[in-house]
Amino acid sequence: MTVSKRAAKATEESLHRIFTIPEAPDSTLGRIEQEMSQNLAGFLGAHIAAKEMALSEIERDFACSEIPEQPTFVSEHMHHLLNKLVAQSVHTSSPSFIGHMTSALPYFILPLSKLMVGLNQNLVKIETSKAFTPLERQVLGMMHRLVYRDNEAFYQQWMHSANHSLGAFCSGGTVANLTALWVARNNLLKANGDFKGVAREGLYQALKHYQYDGLAILVSSRGHYSLKKSADVLGIGQDSVIAIPTDANNKVDCQLLRAKCQELTEKNIRVLSIVGVAGTTETGNIDPLVEMAEIAQQYQCHFHVDAAWGGATLLSEKHRSLLKGIELADSVTIDAHKQMYVPMGAGLVVFKNPSSVAAIEHHAEYILRKGSKDLGSHTLEGSRPGMAMLVYASLHVISRPGYELLINQSIEKANYFADLIDQHPDFELVTKPELCLLTYRYNPAVVQSLLVSSDKKQQDQINVLLDKLTKFVQKRQRENGKSFVSRTRIEVQKYHGRKTLVFRVVLANPLTSKDILTDILAEQIELAQESRNVLPKLISLAS
Amino acid sequence: MTVSKRAAKATEESLHRIFTIPEAPDSTLGRIEQEMSQNLAGFLGAHIAAKEMALSEIERDFACSEIPEQPTFVSEHMHHLLNKLVAQSVHTSSPSFIGHMTSALPYFILPLSKLMVGLNQNLVKIETSKAFTPLERQVLGMMHRLVYRDNEAFYQQWMHSANHSLGAFCSGGTVANLTALWVARNNLLKANGDFKGVAREGLYQALKHYQYDGLAILVSSRGHYSLKKSADVLGIGQDSVIAIPTDANNKVDCQLLRAKCQELTEKNIRVLSIVGVAGTTETGNIDPLVEMAEIAQQYQCHFHVDAAWGGATLLSEKHRSLLKGIELADSVTIDAHKQMYVPMGAGLVVFKNPSSVAAIEHHAEYILRKGSKDLGSHTLEGSRPGMAMLVYASLHVISRPGYELLINQSIEKANYFADLIDQHPDFELVTKPELCLLTYRYNPAVVQSLLVSSDKKQQDQINVLLDKLTKFVQKRQRENGKSFVSRTRIEVQKYHGRKTLVFRVVLANPLTSKDILTDILAEQIELAQESRNVLPKLISLAS
Asked: Which residues of B touch A382 (CB under 8 A)?
């Protein structure tokens, strides 16, 4: 054998090995797995570096653009990943990281995910997913029933019907919202006479046929950015997403919404959809869905509810009334990877009418044959993993009352934290929790008094400084790595609608304790003192 | 304590447990994990039922639409999943299942997936993914370089640049193709004078502004159905996807393509994009990309290459020339979950020009702030898991030469199987492999002779019977569960372009042996004899 042939032979053997020989339990990867299985929190705590490294520094470890010409041993590569990647990842499940919408996962999810990967099903068609297809349909049925509460006969009739679908699984809320608006658009601009429908002829012909001067999607100014993205993708245009101002509680102002519908209609702009938000990303508030549904009814438009965050609240008998009116929506987005404690990649949308999805039906020769039950004929995505299994297992292991408890606890915790902030002289609660989200800022008592007695101009000056302080504290706290709150900029009514920087907190991690919350405030006070110019300037203004 | 309070307390404790107490190694889930870790093929072989159950029967196990009111113990639920779900799933990694594009996975992928889930990063923004963001950018850089082979300086300049992106990760090829066409549409119909661009004003205003009577996307008749879906979603309309006939080798006919471009241009229909296919889903053939690029250049339109399947061939020095011209494409789709042996959920698109993605840029207050390096500002999806880590690890552990070997072996195996079929008197090879895909059918020698001597009408009659036979054999083989080939319907030139049913085979599983291939043919011959009416009728026609 020549040298090169021998090398090729060696590569071939090592390749065969990685497909056939399992990782030994005492290999690096085997040990990592064991560590994770035995103590996930411990593993993450031990391997994720607390102190934040600058991104530019991390980038140096990911600078090579060439695909390696030499294979690396798995164990060697695992050391590399632990040192360079895991160490510099984000501890999303830490109970003191209360700024994310991702939180801790139940233990059983980890081995179950491994099973999902090992099975490597493709949900696009039955041929590559068999029982996963009815399972996904069942999960969609359960989530549909959670929202719409139709009777048993309804679900027996539609859940497994080939030409119907109670919803669509997708990678996340953005694709779910996009799917809902796609369905709405195609149903509004459907085939009619000579016109073959927007799905076939496109928007230009559709608007010409229906003689509209444009379309509009109406949502509160707290609506998620994915709606604008969807409007762009769908060819409707971002400017067609019209932001309706909210009231003091971050809920859409229905009077303004109605007036805007009327105004657009008079201008021959067709309202395609009104979108209610059930748990805004920034403040967690829920729109007045019943009234919105009435307006949608009046203007004969699609009513979509973006409950990506808040939808799981329906699992709580105690709090589900907060989402009253959601059952009137034509479509509802819910992210299982948020408050349902499933890993990233599990969004879904449910449709009130099982026939809605006919508007986006697709077929192909080799798959999705007409009359088949292939899920791919009604989804935006094609090939997709079997994430539905993780939702299914969670619904069974945690059960509805278990989820209720988790949801109720989160809301209680948010109220507790809100009280803590409210009662503290040097903090200002900016938005009260309706679900488990709230916003606040560090604002020394003397400055708060000054703000009350100031005119708008002076208030603005003070708020500019407070914004700086909030940003400083949030960044510094993140960099220190002990705890994390996020920050956002929201219009605050008492400051004449000024866009104000605030800490944003999401209290969904069941392991976040009251002590942790107390510590976070204490750390923020400390950090605020470290701001070299800002805090002294504020204090001097106030004295 | 009252009974209900006690019950609530118990639920609370059990909930706390699932978040804090690991699954014991001797629990059901622990044992499943061990079984999988030690012998994945054995685990799948033991738990997936060979004999297929009717879908209607499986559906009975997934019929309940109510979310459980009682929690189930994890171990109990795992038994349920093994019996009802895993048993009735599809053995996609079996070496004798050669009809899928998903195949076996290397062992290290399983624990690595568990690590990915445990870390639960969200790639939409740095705040929830930190080092995963530069890692994903690096993988996109590597894949970009694989396609475009730009120099080192190019990658150092653009790979980590905040306002640029060499591509986008996404859940699969459909979203990748959609993203590419979205970028193409927005760049073509960009802001101009008073017109603010299609992204903001939508397609109706865009076509009015640019005074086009429509848009068109041109692709061979073998193009993937996701292109029509994309055209629908993007508001261009499915009918705007124009299928150009292929030659005898399933490659687009460039003369017809050019003529169609000219015809459309004269009709004031703007060609938005020409799409080359590099590995058609049904036959694995590759379009003449160099010539297509020339035509795209001439008509000043976007040139996209859908290399979801074939893109990985670029890793083979021996075969990469098959994709010559791919470096001229403006965008290229590659699915890592196909020939890169990564689990379901890893598609990507790369863009020649790092500025292309500016056309789909999105920002929001709380994330994706301008100037940030958040990946979410250039992706269709929002929240996304850290799948890039699995591609990254595979590129390092397998390395370029390792992938080359896998690719080369697959192609050799396909050629071997093609010879086997060709030399067998009772089989008819319908399409020869260019990559590792081929199509064929069972067709007894006497019937083959008859076909040659028949006129078109008689050929059609025979082919109708042969279609029945192919369907019968394919279904029966699938139901028996020992092996699996898929089936599709393709136009066959020697039968005057008649859409003919064929077996479709994908030989990407490195563990598929020559013996398995021989056995599959033997089984098909046996099964054909079981067709009650069809085979005897064919034979009697021929004698």
From this structure: 172-175, 226, 229
* Interface check A11 vs B, CB under 8 A: yes
Q: Measured in whole angstroms, how far is the alpha carbon of residue A490 from the centre of its chain?
A: 19
Minimum CA–CA partner of B409 in chain A? A12
| pLDDT at B235 exceeding the cut of 70 | yes
CA-nearest of B181, B192, B200, B295 to B240 is B181
Which residues fall within 8 angstroms of residue B310, CB to CB, at 6 or more apart?
B278, B279, B284, B286, B322, B323, B339, B435
What phi and psi, each to the nearest 5 degrees, are found at residue B524?
-65, -40
Q: Of B135, B232, B283, B338, which to mutate for an interface test with A (greatest number of A Cβ within 10 Å)?
A: B232
pTM score, two decimals? 0.97
Question: Each residue of B469-498: pLDDT tens digit?
Answer: 999 999 999 999 999 999 999 999 899 999
- Short-list B454, B434, B438, CA closest to B494: B454
For residue A23, pLDDT beyond 90: no
Query: Could you tell me which chain B residue has the CA closest to the CA of A64?
Result: B138
All structural domains of chain A, each given as residue ranges with its CATH number in brackets, are: 3-89 (no CATH), 107-164+357-397 (no CATH), 409-542 (3.90.1150.10)
DSSP string, B494-537: GGTTEEEEEEEEE---TT--HHHHHHHHHHHHHHHHT-SSHHHH
Pairing of strands B214-220, B241-244: parallel
The complex scores an ipTM of 0.96
Q: Is B28 on the interface with A (CB under 8 A)?
A: no
Given a contact cutoff of 8 angstroms between Cβ atoms, the answer to whether B295 and B254 are in contact is: yes
Q: Which residues of A touch B25 (CB under 8 A)?
A: 37
Residues in chain B with CB shorter than 8 Å from the CB of A199 are 232, 237-238
Q: Do A15 and B510 touch (CB under 8 A)?
A: yes
Smallest Cβ–Cβ distance between B85 and the set A40, A131, A185 belongs to A131
Please report how the helices B289-298 and B254-266 are oriented relative to each other, as an axis angle in degrees rounded to 10: 20
- Interface touch B121/A344, C-beta < 8 Å: yes
CA-to-CA dists, residue B340 to A120, B295, B508, angstroms: 14, 31, 10
Show the CA angle centred on residue A103, arms to residues A100 and A109, nearest 5°.
150
Structure tokens at B432: 């020869």
Q: Which of helix, strand or coil describes residue A270?
A: strand
* A536 and A528 Cβ atoms separated by less than 8 Å: no
Q: Rounded distance, CA B188 to CA B197, Å?
A: 9
| Binding-face residues of A in 415-454 toward B, CB within 8 A | none
Q: From CA A46, how far away is CA A38, in angstroms rounded? A: 13
Report how far residue A72's alpha carbon sits from residue B138's, in angstroms, rounded to the nearest whole number: 17
**Which candidate from A44, A101, A196 shows the least CB-CB separation from B118?**
A44
Residues A397 and B72 sit within 8 Å (Cβ to Cβ): yes
CB contacts, 8 Å: B231 with chain A: 202
Predicted pLDDT at B1: 61
Cβ contact A71–B401 (<8 Å): yes
Which residue matches tokens 């081929």? B438
Chain B residues touching residue A474 (CB < 8 angstroms)? none
